[in-house]
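Incident log, support desk, overnight shift.

02:14 A customer reports that sequence design results differ from what the structure should imply. Their input is reproduced verbatim below. On-call engineer (initials T.W.) acknowledged and began investigating.
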């Protein structure tokens, strides 16, 4: 196979049409396992394939791209950089999208290697062309350029090149192509800013990050939507949150929430604002964030009780995140009857809303009512029980009904709620007092697909792991759960047949 590849490569240098040889070479390259190809690649000279790829015959170009993707997949990044850096550079100018995409992705592979990245950092023209790829009409090429440039910025020399040389002027220049391209540069800068405090400092000093923050409170509603999404990505790091706080961004976003009621276009950006504070609360302190920015909590409650499905979904998701840890639960508890009404509304949506929103409500409910074993104080257990009880007049029956519906996502969502409360004594008493519930748990025939079987097994596992299960359920039921757990989620009871002499 290796010899035939060499022969096919040699055949490409002849005077005849190379199309048929390219087809054969593609077939041979794809047929050879990667492990075997890795041993052969250092001996192969792919320059002729790159040369043909620079032509205008679309079929030949596509064949060359497929061949090179396979060979370069098996190649070492340093080998690619040393042998084909110039060919890749020329590929960035090619009129065909697939060639530019190949070139950008291979540069991205090179810069992931600490040994090979120097080959790229020493080529400012190549880096400039990578930046110009951010302005591509083809979104796949632009996305790959964002990925590759962000990898370059992981090292200090790369940071210094992007933001401390003429390349910064190229970044600023490409931002002027269109709003879409400007957002791509913002996306790149936010991704780099999230890496470390040092990288954020470079992005801030470049002026691009401050420009993004200014657009957050601009008059263009659609720009505001995009900027809020990007700024939210900075919340995931401590240095990002500190920067946003120092720049007054958190206060600005809070003010946007306060002023949303008087803005007829707030529906476009309000979900993003609520997501921002939800992420901020869970990363910092739910109590501090909700106390300092009460408009966030109030708006989240209002959205849950509204009539706009999109708004309800975002509010429910954010409540689920906020209520997923103990401090967040206590914040919700302090609102008293206000949260009880909101949670009751979520229970109503879980039963009556369109399927997608029902699933999101079930996820939020399971996060909010769950208590880790080490948080089983009398007060917290009473709180969880009261919340579960307000979801419906008969919450156990409601979730049993949802779990019996022929929609896997709803079936699993309801099982997830049962799993969330399975280690709490009050819930175990509800389960055992609910007629037929124990039989439902151990009945494998009601779980039609793998996800459902896995979800049921998680419920059984949670019950087995709880300290009070044996006492509340009784020894007989507990042993049945143990048997189910031991047999695993996919157990099928064997049916034996007895052969009768003379029977056909």
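02:41 Re-run completed on a clean worker. Output:
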């Amino acid at each position: 196979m290796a010899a035939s590849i060499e022969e096919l490569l040699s055949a490409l240098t002849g005077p005849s049409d190379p199309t048929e040889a390219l087809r054969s070479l593609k077939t041979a390259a794809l047929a050879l396992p990667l492990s075997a190809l890795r041993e052969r690649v250092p001996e192969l000279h792919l320059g002729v394939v790159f040369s043909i790829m620079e032509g205008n015959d679309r079929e030949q170009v596509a064949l060359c791209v497929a061949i090179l993707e396979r060979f370069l997949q098996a190649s070492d990044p340093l080998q690619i950089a040393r042998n084909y850096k110039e060919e890749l550079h020329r590929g960035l100018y090619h009129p065909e999208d697939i060639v530019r995409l190949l070139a950008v992705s291979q540069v991205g592979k090179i810069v992931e290697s600490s040994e090979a990245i120097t080959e790229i950092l020493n080529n400012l023209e190549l880096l400039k062309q990578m930046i110009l790829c951010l302005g591509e009409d083809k979104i796949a090429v632009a996305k790959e350029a964002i990925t590759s440039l962000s990898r370059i910025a992981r090292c200090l020399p790369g940071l210094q090149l992007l933001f401390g040389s003429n390349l910064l002027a190229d970044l600023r220049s490409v931002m002027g192509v269109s709003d879409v391209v400007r957002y791509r540069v913002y996306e790149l800068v936010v991704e780099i800013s999230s890496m470390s405090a040092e990288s954020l400092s470079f992005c801030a000093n470049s002026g691009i990050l401050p420009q993004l923050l200014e657009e957050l409170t601009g008059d263009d509603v659609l720009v505001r939507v995009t900027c809020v999404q990007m700024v939210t990505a900075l919340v995931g790091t401590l240095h990002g949150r500190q920067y946003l706080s120092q720049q007054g961004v958190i206060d600005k976003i809070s003010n946007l929430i306060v002023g949303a009621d008087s803005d007829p276009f707030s529906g476009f950006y309000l979900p993003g604002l609520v997501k921002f504070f939800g992420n901020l609360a869970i990363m910092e302190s739910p109590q501090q964030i909700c106390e300092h920015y009460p408009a966030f909590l109030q708006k989240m409650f209002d959205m849950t009780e509204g009539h706009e499905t999109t708004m309800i979904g975002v509010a429910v998701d954010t409540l689920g995140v906020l209520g997923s840890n103990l401090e967040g639960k206590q914040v919700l508890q302090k609102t008293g009857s206000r949260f009880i009404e909101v949670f009751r509304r979520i229970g109503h949506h879980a039963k009556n809303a369109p399927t997608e929103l029902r699933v999101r409500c079930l996820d939020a409910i399971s996060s909010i009512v769950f208590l880790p074993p080490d948080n089983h104080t009398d007060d917290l257990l009473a709180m969880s029980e009261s919340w579960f009880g307000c979801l419906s007049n008969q919450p156990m029956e409601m979730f049993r009904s949802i779990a019996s519906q022929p929609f896997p996502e709803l079936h699993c969502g309801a099982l997830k709620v049962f799993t969330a409360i399975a280690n709490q004594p009050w819930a175990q008493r509800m389960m055992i007092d609910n007629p037929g519930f124990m039989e439902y748990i151990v009945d494998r025939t009601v779980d039609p697909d793998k996800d459902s079987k896995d979800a049921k097994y998680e419920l059984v596992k949670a019950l087995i792991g709880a300290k009070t299960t044996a006492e509340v359920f009784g020894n007989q039921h507990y042993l049945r759960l143990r048997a189910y757990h031991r047999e695993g989620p996919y157990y099928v009871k064997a049916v034996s047949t007895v052969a009768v002499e003379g029977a056909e």
